Amino acid sequence: MLEQSKNVFGQFDALTAVKDRVRLNAQMAAAIHESVGAMNAPIVIDAVQIEDIQFSPEYMRSIEKRMQASVEGDRLKQNALREKVQA
Fold first, then answer.
1. Short-list 12, 37, 7, 36, CA closest to 23
2. I want to staple 48 with a disulfide (CB 3.0 to 4.6 A). Which of 18, 19, 27, 29 is the partner?
3. Backbone phi, psi, residue 21, to 5°
4. Which backbone phi and psi does 54 adopt, to 5 degrees?
């Protein structure tokens, strides 16, 4: 079961795992159901909810820098468009 969970989670990058948590939860639930079903165990899983995704501080800093660069780029484009309209 752990291996199937790792396989599902490995298909998501950090940003997608956070933004598309519903899909991650659904795929994780399917993988767990498949694992439990293969064991023929009398276990019922009602739902899977992934709540606390943690990444290394270095990885989080790199995501933050990327997001800041994107916001700055959008701001510069907006300023350029405003100047063009004013001219």
1. 12
2. 29
3. -65, -30
4. -115, 140
Segment 67-87, tens digit of pLDDT = 899 999 999 999 999 998 988
Structural contact between residues 22 and 47, judged by C-beta atoms closer than 8 angstroms: no
AA identity, residue 38 = A
Tokens of 1: 């079961």
Q: Write phi, then psi, for 25 (nearest 5 degrees).
A: -60, -45
Cα(31)–Cα(4) distance, rounded to whole angstroms?
A: 6
Give the separation between CA 8 and CA 11, rounded to whole angstroms.
6
Q: For the whole model, what pTM was predicted? A: 0.55
Q: 20, 12 in Cβ contact below 8 A?
A: yes
Largest CA distance in the chain: 72
Length of the chain: 87
> Could you tell me which residues come within 8 angstroms of residue 12 by beta carbon, excluding any fewer than 6 positions away?
20, 24
